[in-house]
Structure of Homoserine dehydrogenase:
Amino acid sequence: MAKHVSVGLLGLGTVGSGVVKIIENHQDQLIHQVGCPVKIKKVLVRDLYKKREVQLDSSLLTTDVNEVIQDPDIDVVIEVMGGVEETRQYLLTALKNGKHVVTANKDLMALYGTELLAVASENGCDLFYEASVAGGIPILRSLVDGLASDRITKMMGIVNGTTNYILTKMSKYGRAYEEVLAEAQALGYAEADPTSDVEGLDAARKMAILARLGFSMNIDLQDVYVKGITGITEEDLNYSKRLGYTMKLIGMAHRDGEKVEVSVQPTLLPDSHPLASVNDEYNAVYVYGEAVGETMFYGPGAGSLPTATAVVSDLVAVMKNMRLGVNGRSAVMPQYNKKLKTNSEIFSKYFLRIHVKDQVGAFAKITSLFSERGVSFEKILQLPLKEKDLAEIVLVTHKASLKDYEEVLQQLRDLEVVAEVKSSYRVEGDGVL
Amino acid sequence: MAKHVSVGLLGLGTVGSGVVKIIENHQDQLIHQVGCPVKIKKVLVRDLYKKREVQLDSSLLTTDVNEVIQDPDIDVVIEVMGGVEETRQYLLTALKNGKHVVTANKDLMALYGTELLAVASENGCDLFYEASVAGGIPILRSLVDGLASDRITKMMGIVNGTTNYILTKMSKYGRAYEEVLAEAQALGYAEADPTSDVEGLDAARKMAILARLGFSMNIDLQDVYVKGITGITEEDLNYSKRLGYTMKLIGMAHRDGEKVEVSVQPTLLPDSHPLASVNDEYNAVYVYGEAVGETMFYGPGAGSLPTATAVVSDLVAVMKNMRLGVNGRSAVMPQYNKKLKTNSEIFSKYFLRIHVKDQVGAFAKITSLFSERGVSFEKILQLPLKEKDLAEIVLVTHKASLKDYEEVLQQLRDLEVVAEVKSSYRVEGDGVL
């Protein structure tokens, strides 16, 4: 093995700075584990003269990506620049040049993970991406190694810290969405443009990656049903609490036999569910395996040093493989063909809040509409509203197929006595599955 | 690589049966991951004719250990028989015969782990023991691989399901220790002789193993301070609740600079602590790393299939190494010399419950004894007792050194106004460290 391992960094932002710090501060520990030092040889940046959190010799910085991905001395490329199309080209070139790649890029891995892993394998290179899901939580490695012998049937994740922060503050303190979002932006938990977080797209990318590994199936991003948190109101949160539930943005991946469903949507969890007490910007992934039963992995989902921990732990894995001469041989291709459930195969309980006209027989009309479809209720509340001639009905159904439920919803909207369907959410059952 | 991998099993009890089931039921998945089938060639049992949960061809069973550990065709020995001295000899022989070993034996690994790992390494063999700590939770692999780049400074674990079950039922329903213990025994959560669980020894073994890996230091079992749950009363649990704490049997391993402390003792956790909501027979390990911050790993700590999941996942790791030809090369020896804290270097808050004589000036005598030692209070309650002329004082100190606190305790016991020191527990702080 070489006297040291040379690393090229693409990007020196939040996560990149963390990577530099950990490599510098934990050098003796890294040497102990892998037998040689790690040296950062080159760092791609946009602006050579920007003031940064970490001090690096200016000779290490470059604005020319080829000084990283074409340098024959660089063993490992760490990608923490983000972006998709351009970044994909850079990493394909790096892999074709025989460089191992560590990336924290969930967008890229969700869209092009399969391609990149295949190219890595063809070129005898490692491609690791632990940091792409749930920051500092070593969840991908736990799925691949720790639970290797089990058959995973369900994963539920709080995998977006921004939305969990917002929902926690809204639920606990009755604060308004816009106010908490502004606070999250000020604290750096939310981006200036929060769309990708609050509309659930960021979580969907992570769920695609998790489902691919957990179910050993080529799940694509477009296979994930996505609904964000922007429509959640104070009323919804109050009723959730009253009924013994906690509202979370849940990424869910569920396997029944050979078929799977993957979604991201606001979900009411029973208060006793392990994920219900995961608050603020924290992330957690709940994994149900046929043999192991319920497990949960909890930790920081983002942030400079937590995410960098996952990146550098991947680097350690690459270096251990270099020492053993076995790079590029650990990836396992998906075992199963993708089979997605149809809406008549997806079952869940649902929470529904409706405004109805305060007429004799309104309630009966609504309930008979459900019972015609075979959808029954677990909980039901009817309350008067301040608005004249309106009443509010809140109900939680027993398990129903998504197909039946959507038809009921459509027919409700068409019903003369229904003024408005205010909200509708998935409800997680009490049972483990 | 061979056409199949041959496994010899030592033991066919609870965990052994689970191992057989998983190997049989998940065969296609195992083949996909490691490229060849797994075959169970021989199983050491005590009684050939006992009725068992799994059906194995009687030709596979033997009462002669040499048919497993001396058989040149057996590649991997899975040890799920328990016991220490005899088992150690078997595994040493197996390793010297070039067999890889997977064990679920915490007693053995706590006492002879260092020796066994060295012999494994000398003989080019893998020795994996994920199942020895926290059953189905892949915590050892997470420490070694997932958090490889971080410097772990604190681990706290609920690593004994029996005591967690007992404490949960006592706290939640105000039930008596003996009654809940009997129930736990009936449910199979507690052994007929529960000593090793309730006195904390089982948890101590697991903490020695965790501390060794997390701190990269040769921690021995005798380095772990141990106190069990048998002295905990209903009063203690009621006061804990009233003060905002949850009582748990906590294994704690803490590093300050170069020095460490490891203990197992009943501990009052703030209700908001992630471990406080780990209930019933569940286990969890909370890990604090300098870079990653707070993480927690939650799951079933025991049981046939959960523990067997960890065993067979280790087997998969051995088989992946066989395919790559790199067995016996992944173990990393401890990096640091063992340095244990003295009692004057161990700091904590403490909960103390005392019965004092109801005399003028008693309270002042007690508080001045504390203040002479520089130990101050965070919370203090004084209540009358039914017993004539006695009052109960409950207090929680600010952080104090164990040395100072023990001296205060001793002097309290000698004080004329103190009728009895009823109980004393460690209190976990609100801060992350």
Summary: The first strand of chain A starts at residue 5 and ends at 10. Chain A has three domains: 5-133+304-324, 139-300, 347-427. Chain A touches chain B through 58 residues (CB under 8 Å). The mean pLDDT of chain A is 94.
